[in-house]
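Hey, quick one: can you model this chain's 3D structure?
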Amino acid sequence: MLVSNLLSNYLPLPDDPEYAQLNAQLPAYRTSLETRYPPICASCLPAVEEEIKRRDRMARTSALGTLLKQSKGKGKERQRQNSGSLVRKRRAALERELLIWRVRGVLWVTMLIGFLSAYGFVLSGSTTLQLPVLLYKTSPVIVFLSIIWTAWDPRYATFKRSQIQGREVRLRAKREYNSLQTFVWLSRLLTTILVALSAWKPTWDILYAPNSTASLSLQPRALWYYRVSIVLELCILIRSVVILRIDTPPPVRLMEQYSHRPSLPPSDTSSQYPSRHTTPMVDPAQELISSLTLSNNPILMNLTDARSSTTSPVFGQPSLTHVNGHANGQSSLALDPMEDETGFPDTDDPMDGEDEDAERDPDAMDWSPIHPVQRSQRRARALGDRSNSMRREDVNLRPQRFFAPEEPTGLEGLFEKTIKLGDDDLVRREEMSKQTLWRRWFGSTSRS
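Sure thing. Here's the predicted structure for all 448 residues.
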């Protein structure tokens, strides 16, 4: 998650002047992140590798099983279909289908050319286009019947031949093609209805009056209607030719092309990580702070030197090395900033002298201990037994005695209601004993 967030925030906007430089450094930055924050530790890597291989085998088995189910019985079906009689029957049926397909194609092209020519003649202002009035009156019926060949598919012959040859092909964008052709059919039907209305009744003449003997002229709205219609025809024609295509589905390839291992520097690819103690660690004196940076500049650590100079961490012991130590190899004691070389706080009485006050830091905090002790006494105790110095009276850790007042929360009586802290058994026994004594006394008095 951390690596993903850093990678998502690495590149700036494309219009940023540093975008090209940061984009070129992206592989190195990804390698740096995977080195600093490895997704999988070395001890877990074998188990993860085995799990990934097992899942890959399961995926391959599932894919092969699906292919076998789909191809079950296809061999016998192909042999039966490739027999002589079936081949001849299928070829005869295909020829009949292709004949009908060609007739529909001729009608489709004729209708397209006819409407484009009519729009062109009208927009050019030519008056030579004189058609029979009966054709204008019956044009809506012709266009309505053209729904049979409106969705004519020019790729149908290629598609059927490919299927007969045994190739698996797919026809793309068939639904969009049918929608476009249906829209064109509605536009043509509306145009022929407007023209037929003007032919049946001249008073309804909106676009063009074919029975008029006077000079022909188009109204402005009719001119705009024809312009929009011809542009619509051309745009849909181009779109239909472009989108309709036949594709061959890609074959299934059960090959591992990409590795799931993190990309490490070339110097570390040959190294093996047998256990946790070989996990790359950072040299604290050189790259401790640099490895924790969130900068966009890639930082590649020298893992070989880091592994050779560090040891495995041990629970209960500090993992950072001691930089300051004694010359004899013993670990040095960390001195508190308020302590002197003896290990005790340098808390002299401010009345000791002006020379000691002059040596103090002017920015130091002005404080004095509760029980001031002279320097000589502290030095004597420090030079004496070290164990006795732990019982000094100047600094003591005592339990807390003062508690700040708190507002009532309303839960103070919760345990009193739910849990009875009294001795219920003793109380019950006392009550039973009292009742027994009363019954005995009452029985004795009644007998007497």
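One thing worth noting: The chain has a mean pLDDT of 70.
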